[in-house]
Write a structure and sequence with these properties.
The complex is a heterodimer of chains A (316) and B (305). Chain A is mainly α. Chain A has 11 helices and 6 strands. In chain A, strand 3 and strand 4 form a beta hairpin.
């Protein structure tokens, strides 16, 4: 620390150039975490531009001798819109993020909100179910032997496979919350079910690992202090497992966000995934890229938020 | 009748051919108010012995009696200080002690419980650090918290399992004196398990060596001469203390000595496939790994010590 001060604070006479360089280096050290990601982004955009097609307008004479303009696309992947085209086509959705022009023509944040609502419901269901299952799996040898094989088999099943089952399960169900106008339709319930089933496993497995990893020392303390079963659970096991549980919760949230897109695609519900699929069918390829970017950014934000909560809890 | 008695106790782990006897025919008896140190080789079953006394381990044979009654599990009458502190990292110093206090006296008010906890934290000299977390404390201070936690349950006996093993020599000396002082103040019966004969000499009334495991058992009891107010430095060099130290060490090195140690090592038998020159040699040829299961053999090598 002191060395740096001497170098930058009191340059010797005649070494002004050196001082300037060392300052520049210090500045670079501060700013490289800003410049380097921007550089990386530019490289990716250039690559995209290189692959993307562009429009070529040609004026020709048709059979009757009238001039007409023919628009063709050329390029490595001629139908892929370039960055600028993507922005032009998407600006409407980004500039008015909460506009609602129709069920499947809304601002991008409006879609995001619809998707998030379902994700949160499915995710909370996954936590409520997954945490106790994880605790049982980690603490009871009998339970582990009985259910671990089933869990290992169900875990890798894709959301695309769960969704039809969810539709069948809730085909004739309409769940209304009494006293409100909120009604869950079959496709909503199926989506929530799929999110819950798919995102539950990281929570289950991490909680189980956490319970198994509780040091024997802590359990000995519980025994020596003669803590009751519930005291041992809430004062020793739960706090000791908490870091593992939160790692599970974070992974689960990531998966829940992945699954909702698939679920919306299949059910055609309004949301980021539903919009993506609709625009693909409408040959509006720029909006697919808009959706992909949105999904990525939201997923990133969710993960960051979760890791902040995780760090707070681990520090506490 | 002693406060704590072990009668003909055997403990082992595993079963059948893989069974290892850890403790064999242990006879032990401690009077109320006494401080006994059990000294032994590392890995000789000292912690198992202490777990027996605490009630964490049940003997396969024989009886563990506390105050004439058979020990069936841990009890607040025997406070335990573990080797590695075993503090709960998510609780503050006070919280760790309070956990013990509230487990023993759940019906007392929070204020009374806190007062009880603070009384013992003051006794170990930690009243200034009660709101810190264990990770913010030095090893010596952590072990003080652990001692305070054990004492706060007002046990009739304190079991210390190599309590200062992980500490530096200076802190260790300091804490040994604390143990002597706490014992003088509270009059608790103490059983101290250690691998350091000097530690036993400065804290205990009697020293009992534990022979090397497996099949460890307790040796004869060596009485420690009266220390009454003599400083540690003097104790180290006093003739009568040197005599006891020599006796204990001789016992550990002679009768209690581990006679042989077996080392199991894995061998990879030489490759019997003829070298094929047409394929060329691998670039890195060192350390061939076994390709078939029958290439691996294990052998036991006895090392005499």
């Amino acid at each position: 620390m002191e060395d740096v001060k001497i170098q930058s604070g009191a340059p010797e006479k005649g070494s002004l150039g050196e001082a300037f360089w060392s300052r520049l280096q210090a500045l670079w050290k501060h700013l490289d975490s800003l410049f380097l990601p921007i550089g990386g982004l530019l490289v990716c955009l250039l690559a995209w531009q290189f692959i993307a097609g562009r429009e070529v307008r040609r004026t020709e004479k048709d059979d009757f001798g009238d001039p007409i303009t023919k628009v063709t696309r050329v390029g490595i992947s001629s139908d892929l819109p370039s960055p600028v085209e993507t922005w032009k086509a998407s600006a409407r959705y980004v500039v008015e993020p909460f506009a609602k022009r129709g069920e499947l023509d809304q601002g991008i944040l409006s879609f995001t909100w619809l998707s998030l609502k379902l994700v949160v419901q499915g995710y909370l269901l996954a936590l409520v179910l997954g945490t106790p299952i994880g605790f049982l799996l980690g603490s009871s040898e009998v339970f582990r032997k009985a259910f671990d094989p089933i869990i290992q088999i169900l875990r890798p099943v894709s959301p695309l496979a769960w969704l039809p089952l969810g539709m069948v399960l809730f085909l004739k169900t309409r769940v209304g919350i009494p006293g409100t106008h909120v009604v869950y339709t079959a496709s909503e319930l199926a989506a929530v079910f799929t999110v819950a089933v798919c995102s539950m496993w990281p929570t289950v497995l991490n909680t189980a690992v956490g319970v198994r990893a509780v040091p024997q020392d802590y359990l000995n303390v519980a025994k020596v202090l003669r803590l009751s079963r519930s005291q041992t659970l809430f004062k020793i096991l739960l706090p000791a497992t908490l870091p593992y549980m939160f790692t599970g919760y974070r992974l689960s949230l990531g998966i829940a966000w992945l699954v909702i897109v698939a679920a919306e695609m299949l059910t055609g519900r309004p949301g980021v995934g539903g919009f993506l699929w609709q625009q693909y069918n409408a040959l509006s390829y720029a909006h697919i890229i808009l959706c992909i970017v949105t999904i990525g950014v939201i997923g990133f934000v969710l993960d960051r938020a979760m890791s902040v909560v995780e760090r707070k809890l681990k520090g506490a | 009748m002693g406060l704590l008695e072990l009668q003909n106790v055997h403990v082992g782990f595993g079963s059948g051919a893989r069974r290892v006897e850890v403790l064999r025919d242990v006879e032990f008896r401690q009077e109320p108010g006494e401080c006994v140190a059990i000294v032994g080789w590392s890995g000789s079953g000292k912690t198992t012995l202490l777990s027996l006394m605490a009630g964490l381990v049940v003997p396969d044979l024989g009886r563990v009696l506390f105050d004439g009654r058979q020990v069936e599990g841990p009890s607040r009458e025997r406070g335990v200080v573990f080797q590695n502190y075993s503090l709960l990292p998510w609780l503050s110093v006070l919280g760790n002690v309070l956990l013990a206090v509230s487990a023993v006296w759940p019906k007392r008010s929070r204020a009374e419980q806190e007062e009880q906890a603070m009384r013992y934290l003051r006794m170990v000299g930690l009243d200034a650090a009660v709101h810190k977390r264990p990770s913010e404390l030095s090893g010596g201070m952590r072990q003080r918290v652990s001692v305070a936690r054990a004492l706060s349950m007002e046990p009739r006996m304190l079991l210390l399992d190599e309590p200062f093993g992980a500490l530096d020599a200076l802190t260790r000396g300091q804490l040994q004196e604390e143990v002597v002082r706490i014992r003088r103040e509270s009059g608790t019966t103490i059983c101290l398990i250690t691998n350091d004969v000097d530690e036993a000499l400065v804290t205990a009334d009697r020293i009992i060596p534990l022979t090397a495991g497996p099949n460890a058992t307790l040796g004869p009891s060596f009485a420690v001469p009266d220390r009454a107010g003599r400083p540690r430095v003097e104790l180290r060099n006093a003739t009568e203390f040197r005599e006891v130290r020599k006796q204990v060490t001789d016992f550990l090195l002679g009768e209690g000595r581990r006679t042989r140690t077996a080392v199991r090592r894995k061998l990879v038998l030489p490759d019997l496939i003829p070298e094929d020159l047409t394929h060329g040699r691998p670039l890195i040829a060192a350390g061939r790994k076994a390709r078939r299961r029958n290439e691996i053999k294990t052998e036991d090598v006895d090392l005499a010590l």
